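Give me C-alpha cells for this 253-residue protein.
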Amino acid sequence: MGGNMDRGKVEISADPKALFESAAQRISQAAHAAIARSGRFSLVLTGGSTPKGLYQLLASDGWRGKIEWSKTHLFWGDERFVPASDAQSNYAMAKTALLDHLDIPAEHVHRIVTENVNPVDCANGYEEEIREFFHSPAGVFPAFDLILNGMGSNRHTLSLFPGRPTLKEKARLVVADYIPEVSMNRITMTAPLVNAGRSVVFLLSGKDKAEALKDVLYGAEDIDAKPAQAIRPKHGELVWMVDREAAALLPKS
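Here you go.
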C-alpha cells in the first residue's frame, strides 16, 4: 500500500504477532546484508510496548539463531534520563526482553550511559561514541544499517516532541532536551542522523495509533506539530510496519 510515497511505504500485518514476525524477518535480512557488506550490523533500538514484543520474539528459541549477534552492534535512538536499572529506561526494557537471552559481546551493546553525568554531557558522550564507532568526522552523519522507531499518539518519535527546539537541529547527532510535556530530561538522536540511515522502520500497533498514523502520512506537512514527519531518509528506505488496528483509518488502496 502506498499513499504519500515520500513519507514512506506502509506494510500492514493482520495482528501484532504477524507484525513482530514480519519485523523480525526484515531485521534478519538487513543483518545478513550488512554483515556480508561490512562484517557487522548496526541496529538502533527503540523503546515502547510494541518493540518489546518484537524483542521477545527475537530472543525466542525459534529466532535467536537467525541473526549473527556476535557481529551485531546495538544502539538506542533515545533514552529517558534515568538510571539503567530504572523501570522507565529503554535500555532496561531491551535488556530484559532481548539482551539477557542473547550471546552478544558486552562491548557491542552501546547504551546511552545516564549515570554520573548531566544530560548535555550524556548526549555529547553518546555522539562521540557513535562518531568513534563509524570513524565519522564532524560534519558527517554516519549511516546505521537499520533504525527502529516508534511514534506516540501526539506524533512524536524518538524523543523529538512537538514544538521543541530539537526539531530544528541540523548539525548534532545526539541532543539532550528537558520536555515539559513529560516533565523529564531525554537524550535523543536527531532527525538528520536518523535520516542518514540505510533503513528506517516505524513499528506501530493498536487503534490508539490510527489517527496519528493517518495524519502523519496523509495530513498537511507540519513538522513542528508532527515530529514523525521529520523522518525522511536521504538515501535509505522508510517503512511503516503496522498492524490492522493501527492502519484502520488509512485510505484503502
